[in-house]
Amino acid sequence: MVRLSVSDLAFSYRDRPVLSDIAFCVDAGEVLGLVGPNGCGKTTLIKCVDGILTPCRGRVALEGQDLARMHRREVARLIAYVPQSITNHTSSTVFETVLMGRRPYLNWSVRPEDEEKVQEALSLLDLDDLAFRQVRELSGGERQRVMIARAIAQETKAILLDEPTSSLDVHHQMAVMEVIRSLAEERDLSVVIAVHDLNLAAAFCHRLLVMKQGSIQGNGIPADVLTAATIRDVYGIDAVVKHDLATPYMVPVPSGRRRGKT
Question: Cross-referenced PANTHER family, in alphabetical order (predicted)?
Answer without folding.
Answer: ABC TRANSPORTER ATP-BINDING PROTEIN, HEMIN IMPORT ATP-BINDING PROTEIN HMUV
